[in-house]
Design a protein that fits this description.
The complex is a heterotrimer.
Chain A lengths: L3 E10 L2 E11 L4 E5 L6 H9 L6 E6 L2 E2 L10 E4 L11 H10 L5 H15 L14 H13 L5 E5 L7 H18 L2 E6 L2 H7 L2 E6 L2 E6 L1 H6 L4 H6 L6 E8 L2 E4 L4 E3 L5 H6 L5 E6 L4 E3 L5 E10 L4 E6 L14 E6 L10 E6 L4 E4 L14
Parallel strand pairs in A: 3-8, 3-9, 6-7, 7-8
Antiparallel strand pairs in A: 1-2, 1-4, 4-5, 9-10, 11-12, 11-14, 12-13, 14-20, 15-19, 16-17, 16-19, 17-18
Chain B lengths: L1 H10 L18 H32 L3 H5 L12 H7 E5 L2 H9 L5 H8 L2 E6 L2 H32 L5 H10 L9 H11 L5 H26 L2 H9 L4 H12 L1 H17 L2 H6 L7 H4 L11 H21 L1 H14 L1
Helix pairs in contact in B: 2-16, 4-16, 7-10, 7-13, 8-10, 10-13, 11-12, 13-17
Chain C lengths: L3 E10 L2 E11 L4 E5 L6 H9 L6 E6 L2 E2 L10 E4 L11 H6 L11 H14 L15 H13 L5 E5 L7 H18 L2 E6 L2 H7 L2 E6 L2 E6 L1 H6 L4 H6 L6 E7 L3 E4 L5 E3 L13 E6 L4 E3 L5 E10 L3 E8 L2 E8 L9 E6 L5 E3 L10
Parallel strand pairs in C: 3-8, 3-9, 6-7, 7-8
Antiparallel strand pairs in C: 1-2, 1-4, 4-5, 9-10, 11-12, 11-14, 12-13, 14-20, 15-19, 16-17, 16-19, 17-18
The chains are: A alpha+beta, B mainly alpha, C alpha+beta.
């Protein structure tokens, strides 16, 4: 078992920062998801932890031991790739036993270890088959088995579900999580899919443009995003972000609606006396459609999502949003049994517990002052 | 940018790809730098060795006859235009009396005086210019034909389900498999029978046929790379097949056409064996004509060198102008497999 | 008026039957989504309608007129491809103008300019008009592709997974755009996708295709609430529906390998119609943790997605997935009581997977 610590770890390619200096401690048995859009540096970070990529700056510790300059094979880690990386000419069984045979382990022990992981992953029926004959989900199961069989100190996974069809992805997501719960091996999991990161991670490291944006539990990154990037990136759709001006306990939203701020926020917002512009952020489920709602808009589109309806509402009060005004369309989760026609007027209120405020200039969340 | 490169490299790790310990590209050691310099010097030396024959030819072209045949060869010499005069003119050796008489004349131009200095008189222009123009006409015409026909059939092979497509393609390729010289005699007999011997049309036809297989294969590769969706979009947008071909496919395979054309042009320009067998006077091209400069009293090496050099220049210019297309044409198959 | 009618379309590629006797109708101004997994025959259907592929049997009609013999250019359809449909050698303006310049339309340059400018405005790409398409982002490219379709004002729009190559955020945004555009322009649209969310959110009606056969045609509500087979039930909805083997002895329905026994009264279906063994389908939102619930299970796994949390509840040897709003405080290993919304159960035949009608 292992604790991984990154101290001011950074990577540069020429003059370009691939990863700006970051600190991160991954505790023993923890499942940490590295989340971000492609090109944000998450894979480079994983590669640096694995030793496949050398760091430009900083140090990496595993269990307190400095491994910064150790090669990948000396770090006792297992890597799960997106593209399965199974040897096509070997049977499933040979594939799984391969890492052990290369260590010169005794046959009896190999058999026992293979039997263990086969049971854990429920792939007993596949042992004599060859990888090309397997489905995507089964291939990834075998790949997982091959990395598990070594009993490594930690697992590094690089979008292991990225190459799977949507239908397998949901199943394998639960399976990897189940596996982690059974083994409690430290796991670092790279993904660009926020659903995966939320569903699987004990903690999530959100990265963008080579920088860590926020480190937190799923609940933290969802409800208290540190900045506009995280607010928009997490959630499907992301947080609604509406710019406005703070005037006397009210926010005059772009589009004309006036939103009375929750009393709990007033001291904080008033204390920003030098600035009156603010961005109001709320999740689609924080809005409740009501006849007397303070915020009004026009239905731009409405669509069924199975168990609920998502309303897309233009706050401008017109159906054609202005050139740069994409933000003024907000998404509201509504009951599916009410039908809204495009162009009809809706009013809604916000759940005061779930409203957040952001500074438009720094793009950071405004922290609520707690008054004792 | 950097990290997409990284992610790409990452996907290459696995069976079949060695896991390479990473190199810190941002810190090249002095030792590595020395290696890079050494490699550079070595490649310069190799390039120089390879270019010596060409250099020698260029030098010989500017030598006077005695210098050109001197042994040991002269590296430092007085430049002379003898070779070029020999190439473009027919001359005659003058007797001592005629020489003296000629030397009295004052109306001689620069070239005539140069010739006179060697004891010779210019009788008239040689056939070299007309041979060069034959080469030009035949090479360009056959290239245009080969590329046009090749493009059309490559498009058909790429886009349509032709019965026996693979066999046809193989058959086209197989025409390249036998050495060309094997068929010179039959073709010679055929050409004589149908009156194509020593004609421009005959040579153009021949080179077109030879280049066609090459051009079909190369262009098919290029067209295969253009997604069919482009044309289908145009079809749905209200264009016919031919219009879609002209407006969509053609602009996108300019590179391929240029590469193919250069290869065809070089082949037709340089071809020697057929030209020697199938032409004599009217349609004789430069390659068989240049080494035939036997002159008076032995082979005139400086004339041959001058001819070869002039002959080389157009190819060098075209190749240089289209070098990036050429490179793409050469590396093309390697990337696509 | 423009409607599309497909009658008994069959298409084989060699020995593989891509489409088997497919018939359906897209009504005027309707947004019809063809939903199915990879290889179901969706794209082939679209290509047959466009005239890019010839069917082996059956007939395609626009407004009742068969178009089987017409070449693609004369069918007056617009096709939006998954990718690649912008011409890289042209600017955005030229790309948009391209369909208008087709010889059969003979449109004046002035008229072309007017239409292109209008379209660019609707799609908010006016600032891109002079750019080469190679320098656009994925979202911008797909906007231009859609622009090239609407600039012509064709009889019908055919869209082949136009959103599937975009990242999640863009896909969401364009989904809303497309849905808004179609509804405000009232154009007849046939949209192909493998993504159930796209189908549910955008469609007026959905046709589910599997192995070259139409399995069900209906509104999104029909498909979600009354899936015709277990295949449709699993295809639509995320997280997936719980499908469990169940048995009944008339009065009580028992989920096998568990101790869930549902009294058959209050069910939407008459239990007398059911065989003794069948497949029971329960949507995750219909499994509701409730302190007063009838059943008890143990949380095997929680997946907090933010807006909701997926709870995997272990009961006997079965696992039920349940969605609860928000981020659930429940954690693994805890026991939990839950109820099942009995009015929304689904019953399927065990061998054929076909729904028992109510």
């Amino acid at each position: 078992m292992a604790e991984i610590e990154l101290r001011q770890v950074a990577k540069k390619f020429g003059d370009l920062w691939a990863v700006k200096p970051m600190d991160l401690t991954i505790y023993d048995g923890e499942f940490v998801a590295l989340l971000g859009p492609s090109g944000c540096g998450k894979t480079t970070t994983l590669r640096m932890i694995s030793g496949l990529e050398a760091v430009t700056e900083g140090r990496i510790f595993i269990n307190g031991k400095d491994v910064t300059w150790l090669s990948a094979s000396q770090r006792d880690i297992a890597f799960v790739f997106q593209f399965f990386a199974l040897y096509p000419q070997m049977t499933v069984r040979q594939n799984i036993a391969f890492p052990l045979e290369s260590q010169g382990m005794k046959r009896a022990e190999i058999n026992q270890r293979v039997a263990e992981v086969v049971k854990l992953l429920e792939i007993g029926h596949l042992l004599q088959r060859k990888p090309p004959a397997l489905s995507g989900g089964d291939k990834q199961r075998v790949a997982l088995a091959r990395s598990l069989v070594r009993k490594p100190a930690c697992f590094l996974m690089d979008e292991p579900l990225g190459a799977l069809d949507a239908e397998f992805r949901e199943v394998m997501r639960a399976e990897i999580k189940r596996l982690h719960l059974a083994q409690h091996a430290t796991t670092v999991y790279v993904t660009h899919d926020q659903v995966e990161a939320m569903a699987m991670g004990d903690r999530i490291v959100v990265m963008s443009a080579a920088e860590v944006q926020q480190i937190g539990t799923p609940a933290q990154v969802y409800h208290d995003p540190a900045n506009l990037f995280v607010a928009n990136f997490i959630g499907s759709p992301g947080m609604n972000l509406v710019p406005g001006k703070y005037v006397g306990d009210e926010v005059h939203l772009r589009g004309g609606s006036v939103y009375p701020t929750p009393p709990a926020w007033r001291p904080t917002l008033a204390a920003r006396w030098q600035r009156d512009d603010v961005i109001v952020g709320f999740r689609p489920e924080a809005a409740q459609v009501s006849e007397t709602g303070a915020i009004r808009g026009m239905v731009y589109a409405s669509d069924l999502h199975g168990s609920y309806t998502m309303l897309h509402v233009s706050l401008n009060g017109e159906l054609r949003p202005n050139g740069n005004g994409e933000d003024t369309i907000v998404h509201i989760r509504a009951r599916r049994d009410v039908h809204y026609v495009i162009g009809s007027l809706v009013r809604f209120d916000l759940n005061p517990e779930m409203v957040r405020f952001f500074d438009p200039e720094s793009e950071k969340a405004i922290a609520k002052e707690v008054r004792g | 940018m950097a990290s997409t490169r990284v992610e790409h490299a990452f996907s290459r790790v696995g069976p079949g790809f060695a896991v390479v310990e990473s190199v810190r590209v941002d810190q090249i050691t002095p030792r590595a730098r020395l290696g890079i310099t050494a490699r550079l010097i070595l490649s310069i030396i190799i390039a120089f060795v390879m270019l010596i024959p060409v250099l020698w030819m260029a030098m010989t072209a500017f030598k006077a006859r005695p210098d050109a045949t001197a042994s040991p060869p002269k590296v430092i010499f007085v430049p002379s235009l003898d070779g070029f005069i020999g190439l473009f003119t027919n001359r005659t050796q003058l007797s001592a009396a005629a020489l003296a008489e000629q030397q009295q004349r004052t109306d001689l131009n620069f070239w005539e005086r140069q010739t006179l200095a060697r004891g010779m008189r210019i009788l008239g222009p040689s056939k070299f210019v007309s041979q060069l123009s034959n080469s030009l006409i035949i090479a360009i015409s056959s290239t245009i034909l080969a590329v046009t026909l090749g493009l059309l059939s490559a498009y058909a092979f790429s886009r349509y389900d032709i019965p026996g497509k693979r066999d046809w393609l193989f058959f086209i390729l197989s025409t390249r498999m036998l050495p060309a010289v094997v068929v010179t005699i039959p073709i010679f007999l055929m050409y004589r029978a149908v009156g194509l011997y020593d004609t421009h049309v005959g040579m153009i036809l021949l080179y077109t046929v030879f280049n066609l297989s090459f051009s079909v294969w190369l262009l098919k590769g290029f067209i295969d790379e253009i997604p069919i969706e482009y044309e289908e979009a145009a079809l749905v947008d209200g264009y016919s097949r031919l219009q879609a071909f002209r407006k969509i496919v053609l602009p996108q395979c300019v590179t391929g056409i240029a590469a193919t054309a250069v290869f065809c042009l070089i082949f037709a320009w340089n071809e020697y064996a057929f030209a020697l067998m199938l032409t004599s006077e009217k349609a004789r091209t430069a390659p068989p004509a240049i080494p035939a400069n036997l002159g008076i009293g032995g082979i005139e090496w400086h004339v041959i060198a001058a001819g070869s050099m002039l002959f080389l220049i157009p190819v060098v210019i075209v190749t240089f102008a289209l070098r990036q297309y050429l490179l793409r044409g050469v590396t093309f198959g390697a990337i696509r497999q | 008026m423009s409607q599309i009618t497909l009658q008994n379309i069959t298409k084989r590629f060699g020995t593989v039957t891509a489409l088997n006797n497919v018939s359906f109708e897209v009504k005027h101004a309707e947004f019809f989504v063809l939903l199915g997994p990879t290889g179901a025959g969706k794209t082939t259907t679209l290509r047959i309608i466009a005239g890019l592929t010839k069917q082996d049997a059956g007939s395609v009609a626009f407004d009742g007129q068969p178009v089987d013999t017409l070449p693609p250019a004369d069918r007056d359809v617009a096709f939006v491809f998954q990718q690649y449909s912008l011409y890289p050698t042209m600017t955005v303006y030229e790309n948009l103008a391209f369909p208008l310049r087709a010889p059969l339309r003979r449109m004046k340059e002035e008229e072309i300019r007017k239409r292109v400018t209008e379209t660019a405005e609707v799609l908010r790409i006016s600032h891109l008009l002079q750019r080469k398409t190679a320098r656009l982002s994925g979202g911008e490219m797909q906007r231009v592709s859609i622009g090239r379709a609407i600039v012509r004002n064709p009889r019908v729009y055919l869209m082949d997974e136009p959103l599937s190559n975009l990242d999640a955020k863009l896909r969401e945004a364009l989904r809303v755009e497309l849905s808004h555009l179609q509804r405000t322009q009232g154009s007849t649209t046939l949209f192909v996708t493998h993504d159930q969310i796209e189908a549910l959110t955008m469609a007026d009606r959905i046709g589910v295709l599997n192995h070259g056969c139409i399995v069900q045609v209906g509104t999104p509500e029909d498909i979600y609430d009354r899936p015709a087979t277990t295949f449709v039930a699993q295809l639509v909805g995320s997280p997936k529906i719980n499908l469990l083997n169940a048995a009944t002895d008339g009065g009580v329905i028992t989920i096998m390998d568990s101790d869930v026994h549902l009294p058959a009264c209050e069910l939407c279906t008459d239990p007398a119609n059911l065989p003794c063994e069948f497949i029971l389908g329960i949507r995750p939102e219909d499994v509701r943790p409730d302190p007063a619930g009838l059943f008890a299970g143990e949380i095997a796994l929680t997946e907090p997605l933010g807006v909701e949390t997926l709870l995997h509840i272990r009961i006997g040897r079965q696992t039920l997935v349940s969605t609860v709003p928000g981020i659930s405080p429940l954690s693994r290993g805890e026991s939990v009581r839950f109820g099942i919304v009995r009015e929304r159960l689904h019953f399927f035949d065990r061998t054929t997977g076909v729904r028992f009608s109510e």
